[in-house]
Every structure is written in C-alpha cells, then in structure tokens.
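Narrative of activities, Objective 1.

The group set out to show that a structural description can be obtained from nothing but a protein's sequence at a throughput compatible with the screening campaign. Below is one input-output pair from the validation batch, recorded exactly as produced.
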Amino acid sequence: MDSVQKGAEIKNFTEGNLTSHLVKFAIPVLLSHFMMILLNTVDMIVVGQKLGESGTSSVSIGGSVAMFLNAFIGGFSSATQVIIAIMIGTGRHKQISKFISTVCGFVFVIAIASIFIMLPFTDLMLDLLNTPCEAYEGAYEYALICIFGIIPIYFYHIISAIFRGLGDSKHPFIFISVACGLNIVLDVAFVLWLNMGVGGAAIATVIAQLVSVVLSFTVFAKKKDAFGLTIKIKDFYSWDKGELSKYIKLAIPMAINNSAIQIAGMVINSLTNDFGVTVSAFAGIRANIATTVDLILGSVAAAGAMIIGQNLAAGKLKRVNGTLIRIGVITLSASAMLIVLFLICPVSIFGIFTKENSVLELVYQYLPILIFSLVNAGIRPVTRALIDGSGNKRINLIAALIDAIVARIGLAIIFGVLLEWGYMGYWFGTTLAELVPILIGVAFYFISVKKILRKYSMKKEL
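Output recorded for this entry:
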C-alpha cells in the first residue's frame, strides 16, 4: 500500500453512499459558486447604484471580457479536476504529484501569453461588442485592468480544481469567501468613498483574487503531505511531457467549449447593444442572473462530474447512473423553486442591480424567456456532469461548436433578425439553443458510456 493511501485526505467516491458523497461535496462547491456570484455581481451592484445605467453597462461589457477569461481557464480547471479524479479511480495515485506541478507550470505560461494576446485587442473587442458611447470609457478601463489581473484569475481556478480533484471542496470555498469579503470592502472603499468609478471596481476584484490565490497556495503547501503528494520547486518547470500531452488534449476542447459559449454570448450582447444603453444595461443584468443560476446549479454538476469520473474509471456503471439520477432530482427541484421565486417578484430581483425604471420596464417582457431558460438549467447539469466526468475530449469539442457557434448564434439571428423579434429574439434564440447540449449529452450516454467502461476495464487487465 503506497503512502498516499495511508491516512491521506484524498477522497474515494467509488465506495460508500452516493447521496452522502454528492451532497457533502456539492454544498461547499455551491457555497463557493455563490461567493463567486457575489464576487462577479458586487461590482455591478455598487457601480450601478453609484453611476446609473451607464455604469451598469460599463461593468457588463467590460466584465464580459473578464467572463471570457474565466470561461477559458475554466476549461483547463475542469480538465485538471477530471484527470485527477480518473487517476484516483484507476489507482494511479503516484502520478498525481507530477501532474499537478506540470499543470501549474503550464498554466503560468498560458497566463503570461494571454496577457500579451489580449492587450492589443481590447479596443477591438469593445468595438465588436458595439459598446454604447456613454459606457465606452468605463468598459475599456474595466476590461484592461482585468486583463492585467489574469494571473491571479487563472490560478484561483486551477488551485481550486486541484483541491476538488483530490476530493476537498471545503478549502476552495474558504479561498473564494476571503476574496468575496475583501472585494466588497474594497468596492465600497474605491467606488463609493474614493470615487474611482468603474476602474476602482475592477482593481478591487483583482486585488481580492490575488489575496485568495496567495492564501490557497499557502494552504496547499501545508496540506500536500496529508494528500500524500511530493512536489519540489523544480517540478514546476520540469514537466512530465506525457501527462502534459494528455492534459492539453482534454483541456483545449473544454476551454474551447467554455470560450465558444462565452463568445456566442458576446456576439449576442453586441447585437443587443445596438438598441442603446437601456437595453445594454438590462442585457448585463440578464446575463448576470443567467450566470448566477448556472453557477448555482453547476455546483451540483461539478460535484457529480467528480463522482462520475472516478466511477467510470473504476468501471461502476450503477454508481454512474445513480449519480445522474440524484443530480437531476436536486437541480430540477432547485429550478422549480427559482421559477416560483421569479414569478412572484421578478422586478424586485432585477431591481437589486439597478434603480432605473427604463431598465426595469423590460422585466415582464423577458419573463417567459427566463422561465424557459430556468427549465433548461434544471436539466442541463445532468448531461454536463456526464460529459465532463467522462474526460472525453471529442464530445466536449463537438458540443461546443454545435451549441455555441451553430445553435446559439444561428438561432439568435433567426429569431432576432429574420423574424424581426429584435433583442427579445436574440435572447429567445439563445435560450432555445440551450436544449442542444442536453440532447448531445443524452445521445452520448447511450452511444459511448459503455465503450468508456470497457476501455478502462481493458487497461486494468493489462
């Protein structure tokens, strides 16, 4: 028995009660996502209350650049988590240390490259988003600061993914809680007291995430022995080429998946921004609410993906099926509660982000689309957990291209332009496209899951 198994804190989800595993792992992930929601929305709330709809629009558009960066690195962090889960499921504990150091070193290089790639195109991105004149300066300032803050943004995602991959979802919650609390304090100080405007909100977010990353690395350094890991400084630049190759082959499709969906959202925002600052401000609030719902329900999918990844690798189909059923029960129940909440007090919820009556007048017009989207949001985590947990690079890429490029943009143009529904048509087309990854996930289950189980079984026999 190797040292990792002797009292190590790595969690094994291939045995024990599935419901207990899912709930215990998902609750800290949910709380982490909730804190991430606060981290992302507090800028919009504070700036919106201080500067009105132009400030809301600035944070919305400038923040879309930050959301793109988060989506991109989210693919790498998901791949990190899944590969560690598969390593645990197949009993390859000794390779985890080298894999983690390789990932961290590689992501640092990716972060530096991202800064140099993104900086020259900031103006172009804002032009492509049809940023209203009233919001342009603030949006540019917000986006630029977020780009310079790429390194802490990226590493928060990666170190949290490593902890979760090892079965520890509690510490990522602590890290993001610290960031969120600090961000709120700094937002109030920079925006309300020092009148630093939109740029102050962006600086507050970057500082908060930097502090969170320093804390996360400090804790990881202290806990690596408990996880049975042996990592030296030289391992961060002396990479395992074999593990890196496997990682890139899974991470790139996942990053493309996340990025393509985000790009589709930016295209839709660009189309809606043509309707002026009021619609642009509402679009930002709408996107923020959609992101909030996705993060809340996505926490169950993230927890489920971990359990599914381990059990697929261990060849335990019944536990995979049991996990999928439990995910569906939880997320559909949550979706139903959200629908009731929005039906009862939609204006009050949207009013958290703005005081402008012109923006709030759009709420009831959008409400039927929102309800449809919430139904989709309750189903989507089931197929998302399956696809992510499988570690299948091809299905992630296929889902991304069909979902984002073909369905979201295509359907938005059909309803918004061809059928002349305007901005509501763009939002309805996007919502209708959410059915695509659900259908892809169902097809993937019936066509590929048993093949994956056979693949891991054959490897064990060898």
